[in-house]
Amino acid sequence: MKLRKLKIVNFRNFDNCEIELSNKNLIFGMNDVGKSNLIYALRLLFDGKARNNQIYDTDFHTCNKSNPIEISCYLDISEDNDYNNIIIAKADNAITDNTELFTIKLTIEFSNNQFISNLSWGSENEELIEIPMRGLNRTILDDIFYCVFIPSQNDISSKFKEFKKELLNNYQKNDDDINIESEIQELNQLFNQKISILSTIKTMESSLNEQLDLFDKNYKIKISPSHTFGDLHNNLDIFMFDNREDDIEPTFYPTSGDGRIRKVMYALISYLLNNGVNANGKIPILLIEEPENHLFLSSQIELSKTIFNEEFSPYLFLVTHSPQLFFKISNEANLIRLFKQNQKIEISSEIANIGDKYNDLKNILIENLAQCLFVNRVLLVEGPSEKLLFEWVLDKLGYDRTDITIQSISGIYFDKYVQILKGLGIKIIIKTDNDIAKVPRNDELNALGFNRCVDIFNILNNADESNKKQRLGYSTLDIDNFRNLINSNYTGDIQDFAQSGIHLSKIDLENDLAECLDKDRDFVDSLQKSKWINMWEFIKNATEDDAGKIFNHENFKCLQDLVNE
Fold first, then answer.
1. Can you give the residue ranges of the OLD protein-like TOPRIM domain (predicted)?
2. According to the model, what pLDDT value does residue 156 have?
3. Which superfamily does 2-152+271-326 belong to?
4. Which runs of consecutive H residues, i.e. helices, occur in 12-136?
5. 89: exposed, middle or buried (C-beta count within 10 Å: 0-12, 13-18, 19+)?
6. Residue 292 has what DSSP assignment?
7. 59-109 pLDDT, tens per residue?
8. CB distance 158 to 151 below 8 Å
9. pTM metric for this prediction
10. Using one digit for the tens of pLDDT, what is the confidence trace for 328-348?
11. Which of 173, 206, 462, 472 makes an SS bond possible with 177, Cβ 3.0 to 4.6 Å?
12. Which neighbouring-strand residues pair with 351?
């Protein structure tokens, strides 16, 4: 089974949206854009308990009850595998063509002064049929999917109860267990006998019997303890100890720390998903809200590695504010970004498909990308010198960087960043050098910087063969003359680049800066020798006036594009 798309209509802050899905989905965005509402929409569809919750007027978009709420999920069940066979076996009469997407749809409408819910399913382009009920509050859908929701706050006590129930339901006592329980009962009797002969108990008995004699001499009072262990598993609790300790009897710690509790809860969830009775023969769907809460950064990265492992849960929706949760995402993970545009909630999604040829650079790319996902505008630059200079300029001039970021691409091609960020609806600005490179085993030169801008321009503008810009061919001119030719003869293209947020240097950062501040060749040579270190030395001595000149100069229009919405 493959998750393909989700459609939400008239539900809470979603007017009408359609989201592309994969089997592993990361949901992110600023506060108050509806991330929790998106998770709850999924719960209404796949979790029978949530579906039986009370519906309110506020669940309808802008309280518009004249139109129904519609939540639909589209699944690809065309392959022959266990999960698809579960659906086909249960919904056989609803499937007319399993090469089409299979649709599961929840409709909630207000009629005759009450809310009426209806679940239906079937092939995407066919009329859907109602999903049969299983008793009063269950449907066949609840026999197919096992939906587990992990809220942002710790809920270990209820999960531990569920874990005990699942484990004990599956477990048969052995002979040793029966013998141990018999010994416990004998110890319990001895325990009560010892309590009954305490002097305090004897004093209570004699005092009460003296008073009882005044009323009735035929009876006597006996005070006896009635301690019993009952169900031996009732009062179990979880403790932790350091596995690295060499002590025969290690020190046990309560799971009181929020970080510890969080890790134990994930262990419980992992068991329930893979071994629980409710999961047997069902398709597990895991919904997690803000798993990074109470975890150190290193633990968040390790958690990312765990939850994106196929064995943890094949179907995942995860809400996060943490860049670290993106560090170990699987190659086909889907990024879902929620954001506001013109006071309306928008949703963009993009598969984080890095590609095999980038696997050796994947960690660098993903970690850098993660820093760009929680803002609305990103300036991509060649290296750390540009990042250092541009951040200093904005800070010196007092610009708020809450909603923007400047990211060095760290030696990875711009297009891999652009493809993902564009798909997520994040505005992209680029500042790149006008590189000229020698063609290997050839006397010709390649307009590397200009052609880089051509490729990015075509991506940003969805250009096809009929309207895309063409790369420059090789040249036999020397480097300076070839670059001068580009700057003078292709001004129209360079202006088009700038209109799309792609800013090509006349030469490079150092020469752009020298022209802006009227510096000589020695200044350029110094910055180019030890770029980051000498750039740091430069900004230590630079003034606010220098920052203003840089910001307002045409060579650095990328900064104005970045701060202006």
1. 373-435
2. 61
3. P-loop containing nucleotide triphosphate hydrolases (3.40.50.300)
4. 35-46, 48-51, 82-90
5. exposed
6. T
7. 999 999 999 999 999 999 998 888 888 998 888 788 877 778 999 999 999
8. no
9. 0.79
10. 887 778 999 998 887 788 888
11. 173
12. 334
